[in-house]
# Entry
Amino acid sequence: MGRQIALALAIAFIACGDRPAVPTAEKTASAAPTPGPSVDLAGYRTSFDLLANRVHAFSHHSGMLVVNAGDLEFLKLVDGGWKSSWILGEKDGDIPVAFVSGLSSTMFVPIDADGDGIGGTPLADVLMRLTMRSVVPKQRVSVFVNEKAVGTVEVPDAYAPVEVKVPAHALVLGENRIRLTFRSAGAIKGGKRSAAAIQRVEIGPPRPASTPSDRPLVVDAGIGGQTRRAFVVADTSRLSFYLQIPANAKLSLSYGAAEGGTAVVRVVRDGGPATILSTGATPTTWTDAAWDLGAYAGEAVRLDLISRGKSVAWAAPRIVVRAPEPPAAVARTFDRIYVWMVDTLRADKVRVYNPKTIVQTPNYDAFAADATRFAWAHVPGTWSLPSHASILTGVYPTVHKATAHEARLSREVPFVAELVKKAGYRTAIFSSNGYVSGKWGFDRGWDENRNFIRESLPNGAEYLWKTAKTWIEANKTKPQFIYLATVEPHVIYNPKKEFLARYWNKPYTGKIKPAMTGIQLGQIKQGKLKIDDNDKAYIEALHNAEITQSDAAFGAFIADLKAAGTYDTTAVIVISDHGDEFWDHGDVGHAQSVHQELVHVPLIIRAPGVFPTGKVVDADVEAMDLAPTMLELAGLTPPVESQGSSLLALAHDEVSSVPRVAMTQNTGISRGIKVGRYRLIHAGSSRLELYDEIRDPTEKTNLSGERPIALRQMRNVISILIPFENKWRKRVWGTAANVAEAFYAAAGGS
# Structure
């Protein structure tokens, strides 16, 4: 909202009334006095702008959570509509609402006992107030909280608040599942059926009915003769953000009020007490302040901005980090851009990604030392078709449509080969993957289009590169874009003996036949072929040997570039389309989950003078970011349809675009995201898994029931990303973990 509103006027818009008693004691590990007005942030840069990320905020007023169901904020309670029972973003006449889909709907609400929020201190009975209307006459709704029945009430035919008391014994600290089940449903526009339209959700201590203005306002607030863009919150309120704190970080903001009151800044980590960073009388002029968050580096926290007694304005709240200004990214066009795609190579099988692996990858490791390595690259699918398609289009699978075995790549999406060909490049694809072929829509923009599977030719990486090298030599006078889709270590696992000997040097007399592993893995997954631990070890040894065989072929590829004198003038990209599981989570092969072993892949880019040598980028990136990256290396501007963002600037400066989110989908079964140290796997609203990628890189311990703050932070991100997945533009909107202002206008929010 760009309107100019004086703070006094903003206060008048906020509902008043009798308030419950403010807690007199805080759980606190430490307390610090309010800093003075002089704050030195020299050498610090903004990492996370809380105003720009207001979609991630939770607003409590007099302890009551207030959420408008027709607004963006409601998405966080319903996982963005993924596997939920809501019809979102609708209008009932002029009223923004969410419709219940069918007879029942579910939402999830975070509750704590840190004070100023729903649970108060300690956790107590709460009131749930739903402003709603029924779609059909004589409607009733039964309310269940964590599957405990708490009441059944009549639903009005016109919008009015419906109240249900929720006893403390039905609540838990952390995420609470609220299920609404109605008696009947009727037709609404669009041919859908619904039981009710919900305008607003309020949960917390009993209080008078609120008004639509009883929520945080982002306004140009005037205090002491100065105007600043700020959150203006109710006179007794809490604004909460769930986020991960980077290293060397501070919270920076300005605050003030038209008259008195108390301002509190508080931070809470999972499993720890609330820590008050500052508390005291609110100044009547803008006061700049900053607090060191170094003790929370690498952790998920809840950051609370609290006002008591009178309304407080919070201007320019930011997480800033100590970081130098980045060097300027050098714009340079490469006449040779080669992509070496390694099929089915998970990151933790490569030594430079996982020093503990037994797999030998000396050539990939040496290349990484001479290039920029992305530590956390993720693919959007758990099998070849969707991932290759995203790499070559720069869009999510839901946009390019190549998500099922019979599906073809949509011709409505941009395709890198076509774009660089128009710019004068000679283009070629050499593929040993059956999916990466014309049958599935990959026959666009190539001057040379070879698929060795379809042509019934040898398909190993050695043969592929030998064929490609001949074409390169014949076309060496023209700029070249070449996609080398090698197949090792994909099944069949049939490595050369010299490579297998490094991982299996004893006789094997079991059931596994290397040349039959493509069929046998399917039989194992279906339970038709029973194997023992020795067989499992042999299967993984075969796979490991294929990786080392791939590494050797890559070494020959690099040696040939050096011999030709083109290595230092060629942009070379190494990436995989997915990994393989070896009973990490009870299965083998791929396409069955979104765990790290299937979605975390190597990504290494060498473009001399553009991508830094020996640099490791820790930010989360997605395979679809490669399309705009390759276009930038060709001196081209990515098309507006591209959803990814070029990695060139990120390689020089992570501060300005972190946190980021990487998402993977396993068709309609599950979705996974990674943000910072955590991975969230969502297979249904009550089937969430949370993993700490730093302490538990193999994802053995599900922390969803132990780290409610981290879970809520990740839930917020996936809830914002999924509804806008088909039109998200990272270059303009930022990421769902760190949104830009442009997001709100495009998403229809404020």
Summary: The two ends are 6 Å apart (CA to CA). Residues 533-563 form the longest helix (31 residues). The chain has 15 helices and 41 strands. Confidence is low (pLDDT under 50) at residues 1-37.
